Amino acid sequence: MSTTATNFPSGLKPLEFSTESTSKLSQKRVLDILNKKCFNSLQHLRQVHSIILRTGHFQDHYVSGTLVKCYANFHFNNFALAIKVFDQIPMPNVFVGNIVLKGSLENGEPHEAISCYHKMVLLDSKPNKFTYPTLFKACAITGSVKEGIQFHSHAVKHGLSGDGHIKSAGIQMYASFGLVKEARKMLDERGETDAVCWNAMIDGYLKCGEVEAAKDLFGCMPYRNVGSWNTMISGLARCGMVENARTLFNDMDERDEISWSAIIDGYIKQGCFKEALEVFHKMQREKVKPRPYSLPSVLTACANLGALDQGRWIHSYVKRNSFKVNAVLGTALIDMYAKCGRLDMAWEVFEKMRVKEVSTWNAMIGGLSIHGRVEEAIELFKKMQEEKLKPNDVTFVSVLNACAHAGMVESGIALLNSMNRVYGIEPKIEHFGCVVDLLGRAGLIEEAEKFIESMTVKPNAAIWGALLNACRIHGNVDLGEKIGWILLDMEPQNSGRYALLSNIYAKAGRWDDVTRVRKLMKGRGIKTIPGSSMMSLDGRVHEFKMGDGSHTEMKSIYAMLESIMEKLRMEGYSPNTSIVSFDIEEEEKETTLKQHSEKIALAFGLIHTEPGTTLHIVKNLRVCEDCHSAFKLISQIFSREIIMRDRVRYHHFRNGMCSCKDFW
């Protein structure tokens, strides 16, 4: 852009300046126009820029600095223009320099902040206390250790290192480098040391895994604020010590909304979704109103528990409070509805979102994929590209999974081959795993083996696991045995690998080998993950485990189970006992199958819902063949739609059929 341009862009009306001549505009008036008229209008900004050049106000650092600040507005997505203007300012002072430093971070250009500071030094522009916090943050983001240490020495040289804001930013920077000793030295330096500095040091210790040091510092703080407690709670949870974090949370005399969000996030990151939702309910009982930024985490808990009622309440809360549904919140809502079996509501949120990021499209494509709506998933993938959005790694995992579950071999292979050639994305191990799964599920076991041999990366346990599952599906005992023992060497603590190999042997009637696998498990101290199923009713999540009699309504649940089994037998159902251990009587095998957690959850749902109500069940493991067959019949006998999410995919049981077409 020329600095001597005086003409307005064609078709654009000049800004109204009453009757005053632009040549007589005062500094105060120019600043007022920049701050009020140009913040969201690039066209108006260019007009005023032209006027500033003609009137000589560009020499005034407050005017030129404010002009740079307006160009640096991240809504314009043109930070390079702000830098061009900055480069034309004669001898810019620290006010102008600090504006560029701040704008660099706001526009995601931290390296530009470091470069700008170098220019400031060359121009002998003396920094002030607002310069270094931004610089330290830029160094932390970019991992610029050498520059960060230099800038700290500059702050000391200029007598600014004792400032509280500079101290806390420096502590955070050193901690991000893993240099906790240097961070602690900065804390102990003379000058302002408020709670913010102490909190920064505690956070640094925890991020570097030095939990005891963090506890000691927290214990000896001269003054703690709510932020101190929140820092400890977040840090402990991040270190996997969520119960310790909960103890601290319970000990707090005063909590703010961040305190509640910290413990909820902590539970979610450890996979304790039920506990996270319980804390959220406690938060509601104590009349604490959640803010928009905390809702995506709670929606994650709802999604993983299948807690549709709670998820819908949150959506309603968003509407009642007129919260803006940004990309993060909207994506969380889509993911929650999809994982709770309500693709229609997920689609409604997706359609109404004004701003959709790649993650938003991924959530919708992934939702369609896991529900077996393959054609729609692929169609949305195409539409995403029509909207000029570039797919990423996650997008391809979702679409490849869709192809795998639908048996679309050619489409899946073509998609993998297009990743690098068309989209410039190098396939990763996850994408290769999807293709092995695709070939294996389609019964192309030999092709899957050859594909693994041709891979450019070394196959990991997930790759071999996909092929082992294919051997289970198609009864390839010999190859399954070979891969199974490879996996037991690779992941000796993974109970699922033992269970899958044992099931392959059991289906083949090789009971001696089943015994051998189980003895190995026992010798290694490996325990199987107990099957559990959850159902959300009336805002409460009910969890059931296989053979568990602890539920208060278990007597009526078992009575309903007996009624269900009787009706199934009348329809010709016969329990598939081949998957149960051989060393118990046939009657006991049937009892074992009857007490699978998903059947218990189903019986509970039939008792507590009106006829015709859709039942939603979430299971932590893959649904067994017997339960899958039984659920198809139950959907027909009781005229119910049953939506079950197992570890692999979603199953929509309706009128005696399943959406997976017995392919899971």
UniProtKB/TrEMBL annotation:
Listed Pfam families: DYW_deaminase (PF14432), E_motif (PF20431), PPR (PF01535), PPR_2 (PF13041)
UniProt record, GO biological process: RNA modification
GO molecular function: RNA binding; zinc ion binding
Record key words, sorted: Repeat
Record bears the keyword Repeat: yes
Coiled-coil blocks: none
Family annotation (PANTHER family): PENTATRICOPEPTIDE REPEAT-CONTAINING PROTEIN, PENTATRICOPEPTIDE REPEAT-CONTAINING PROTEIN ELI1, CHLOROPLASTIC-LIKE ISOFORM X2
Family: Belongs to the PPR family. PCMP-H subfamily.
Name of the protein this chain belongs to: Putative tetratricopeptide-like helical domain, DYW domain-containing protein
Organism: Lupinus albus (White lupine)
Biological classification of the source: Eukaryota, Viridiplantae, Streptophyta, Embryophyta, Tracheophyta
